[in-house]
Design a protein that fits this description.
Layout (H helix, E strand, L loop, with lengths): L10 H7 L3 H9 L3 E4 L1 H18 L3 E6 L6 H10 L2 E4 L2 H9 L7 E3 L6 H10 L2 E4 L2 H14 L3 E6 L14 H11 L4 E7 L7 H20 L6 E3 L11 H10 L25 H9 L9 H8 L2 E4 L10 E13 L2 E6 L20 E3 L12 E6 L8 E9 L8 E5 L21 E6 L4 E5 L5
Parallel strand pairs: 1-16, 2-3, 2-9, 3-4, 4-5, 5-6, 6-7, 7-8, 8-9, 11-13
Antiparallel strand pairs: 1-10, 10-11, 10-15, 12-15, 13-14, 16-17
Helix pairs in contact: 3-4, 3-11, 6-7, 9-11, 9-12
Length: 447
């Protein structure tokens, strides 16, 4: 039998799992739904901001809005004094509607449309320029509008030379030459780096600090660098994760499914704000002092764009069991939704932390034996399983029980959602604790 992978749960989540509210919401909403916990977002934002304070580094946190479409997180970012990272006109519009000021936005993404550049320039947003033709279009746009465009030049990471993001060294030299005397103000440099390697991020940050000095020698302001996101989230206990890795076999999955995309590292000993702390404490390759000291000495501001890490413990997803089919040695559960609301399948992978079984009948407590089951969707697609792994549940799941997938706010909830089969998208429910109970309302943005 597969190893258990129970997910970490914050105090609010643990309280809700024992509260009848989850069943009441399922009954009232008539289908699967997402729970949003903005107080966890607030705590994560405070933790990231505190790292800059304790290190003496001038820094700014931008919430990467692509990680979740809900309005409440952009609204809380505005109140907390965070910036917001957007990559489309829709995201920019939603951030402004949430109360985020235009000059607190950073606009990323490749080959931005002229319509997006126009609004970004008018709002005074910071724009990460990814290519020479984009720089030329931005300069022309700013000139037509009679404005100055604020820009970062995105640099191609040497450790990921095949990335489709960023300017090669030759293009970077051309860009620096073109910016002088243009309608573009160069505020610094950025990079897009896949993965969670702390040292790689620190090494590349040091390269950007040196680029700021190079740009300043040309008379350009260049006082900021952005190292993007890439701050891991710790979903499960380290010992559980090791046991899973050591015992994982194809027969632990329905139809012996294999995944070409591998699995997200669901355990990380250094995660969230601690990962930022580790980046700042790292001595970059070829340097003699930590990155934090380099930034202070060069008077360079550090921008970070976490998404998943700001949403750690900030939400979960609830499905109702509507069918149980017994197979040889395990059950196939069917729930009232689809895997499109659990987006890891998009990457030829699986969201591995065990869902929590919340029985419909309070007397249905844990049993002596474990009861393995995979979780299928209410669609006609053979491949539409929320969980291929045969989860070892502590009690036999039954119709009417809830399956709660924990910690899904970061990218899992809505990155891949679709109203396939005319099934409605799961609504988002904002839940906050009060002195004696939980209060809830629907998120402002329609699902």
């Amino acid at each position: 039998m597969t190893a258990r992978l129970p997910a970490h749960a914050g105090p609010e989540t643990r309280g809700l799992l024992a509260d009848p509210l989850l069943h009441e919401l399922g009954h009232g909403l008539g289908g699967p739904y997402h729970v949003l916990l903005p107080t966890a977002f607030d705590a994560n934002a405070t933790a990231f901001q505190a790292v800059f304070g304790e290190s003496g580094v001038d820094g700014r946190v931008y919430y990467a809005k692509k990680a979740n479409k809900a309005a409440v997180f952009a609204e809380r970012a505005a109140v907390a004094g965070l910036g917001v990272d957007v990559a489309s006109r829709g995201e920019l519009r939603e951030a402004l509607a949430a109360g985020v000021r235009g000059d607190d936005l950073v606009v990323t993404g490749p080959a931005k449309a002229d319509e997006l550049l126009r609004v970004a320039v008018l709002q005074g947003a910071l724009i990460a320029v990814d290519a020479l033709d984009e720089l030329d279009r931005l300069n022309a746009m700013a000139g037509e509008l009679g404005r100055t465009a604020r820009a970062l030049l995105r640099v191609l990471p040497s450790v990921q030379p095949h990335s489709r993001f960023g300017l090669e060294e030759s293009d970077l030299a051309v860009a620096l030459a073109r910016i002088g005397g243009s309608a573009v103000s160069l505020e610094g440099f950025s990079f897009h780096l896949s993965g969670y390697d702390v040292r790689q991020r620190a090494d590349l940050a040091a390269v950007l600090v040196r680029l700021c000095s190079r740009a300043r020698a040309l008379g350009l302001p260049a006082d900021s660098i952005s190292i993007g996101g890439g701050f891991a989230v710790d979903y499960v206990d380290g010992a559980d994760w090791r046991r899973f890795g050591e015992s994982n076999r194809a027969e632990h999955f329905h139809a012996e499914r294999r995944f070409g995309g591998g699995f997200y590292p669901y355990h990380s000993p250094v995660a969230g704000a601690d990962a930022l702390r580790a980046v700042l404490a790292c001595v970059p390759a070829g340097e003699s002092v930590p990155l934090a000291e380099m930034l202070r000495t060069a008077n360079v501001r550090l921008l970070v764009e976490p998404g998943r890490a700001l949403l750690d413990q900030a939400g979960f997803t609830v499905f109702r069991v509507q069918g149980v089919k017994d197979r040889d040695g395990y059950a196939i559960l069917t729930v009232d939704g689809s895997s499109l609301s659990l987006s890891e399948q998009w990457f030829d992978s699986e969201f591995l932390p065990d869902p929590v079984l919340v029985p419909a009948r309070p007397e249905a407590g844990p049993h002596a034996d474990l009861h393995p089951a995979c979780v299928g969707a209410a669609t006609c697609l053979e491949s539409d399983l929320l969980t291929w792994r045969k989860i070892p549940f502590p009690a036999p799941p039954a119709v009417g029980d809830l399956l709660v997938y924990l910690n899904t706010a970061g990218y899992q909830m809505d990155s891949n959602e679709s109203p396939f089969h005319e099934l409605p998208l799961p609504p988002k429910v904002v839940v906050e604790p009060t002195a004696d109970r939980f209060r809830w309302h629907l998120d402002r943005r329609p699902a």
